[in-house]
Specification:
single chain, about 260 residues, alpha/beta, Alpha/beta knot, Helicase, Ruva Protein, domain 3, 2 domains, seven-stranded parallel beta sheet, about 50% helix, binds S-adenosyl-L-homocysteine
Length: about 260
């Protein structure tokens, strides 16, 4: 069932009680895949107490060193944010986000990523996401407690499930699965390296170039085959640049003789 394909990811949580509260919120709504990225205190008694009868969610939770590792196998990554960030990203409210996530979870793993209690997610973390979701809370105090924010999203996911998936899966008619977050992350490393070799990207003054390119590709949702083609273009470009560099660096044949 699609809810099984939904992973709740908590980044760098400070309070173990919140981790327990999240486990309970998830179990109440029938969601069980919990990933913890560098939790500050875990395992912890307070997490166990707050989880009440949802300790099985904690027992099966996986702990990761990086967000990249926690979302590596996901085809759709959704980042939560209490406020607007540096450059706009596709943004949905929890209801539409949950309908979309539930529809796609029929085919791919979906991650919903939550940030630190004090600082939320960094821009770099938010830029690893295809979509952002904001709970439209009181503008004068829009930041919810972490476990409560998870509850809102999990509730909407449950409603999408009980409604039998209101919207069609946008990936259903496609011939290839969307690239995973891991494949896209590796593509971005390769792209940045190639753009530097070409001299198009100045590593000393990168401006917002990679951010804008990330936004373009995460929005376009290339499939596995498309990312392979893009990687192939980069490899071929690098080959040409290096070949030219080698030709220019080589001594002319006559000079070598003389
Ligand atoms: N002070 C932080 C808020 C952290 S709240 C900031 O300004 O970013 C902890 C986490 O709960 C957030 O990272 C997010 O995952 C979730 N959260 C809290 N309020 C939210 C809201 N209104 N919309 C979406 N997510 C929210």
């Amino acid at each position: 069932m699609s809810l099984d394909n939904i992973r709740i990811v908590l980044v760098n949580t400070s309070h173990p009680g919140n981790i327990g509260g999240v486990a309970r919120a998830m179990k109440n709504m029938g969601i069980s895949d919990l990933a913890l990225v560098e939790p500050r205190k875990y395992p912890h008694d307070e997490a166990t107490w707050r989880a009440a009868s949802a300790t099985d969610i904690l027992d099966s939770a996986k702990v990761f060193d990086t967000l990249e590792a926690a979302i590596a196998d996901c085809g759709l990554v959704i980042g939560t944010s209490a406020r607007g960030r540096t450059i706009p990203w596709p943004l949905l409210d929890p209801r539409h986000c949950a309908q979309r996530a539930y529809a796609e979870a029929g085919q791919v793993k979906v991650a919903v990523v939550f940030g630190r209690e004090d600082r939320g997610l960094t821009n770099e973390e938010l830029q690893q996401c295809n979509l952002h979701v904001n709970i439209p809370a009181n503008e004068e105090y829009s930041s919810l407690n972490l476990a409560m924010a998870v509850q809102v999203l999990c509730y909407e996911l449950r409603m999408a499930h009980l409604d039998g998936g209101l919207i069609d899966n946008p990936l259903a008619e496609w011939d290839m699965p969307p690239a995973t977050a891991d494949a896209l992350a590796r593509y971005f490393v390769h792209l940045e390296e190639t753009l530097s070799e070409m001299g198009f990207l100045n590593p000393k003054a990168p401006k917002q170039l990679m951010t804008r390119l990330r936004r373009l590709y995460t929005r376009a949702r290339p499939d596995e085959m498309e990312v392979n083609i893009l990687r192939g273009i980069l490899t071929s470009t690098q080959y040409q640049i290096r070949q030219r560099g080698a030709d220019e660096g080589a001594e002319p044949a006559d000079a070598a003789k003389g």
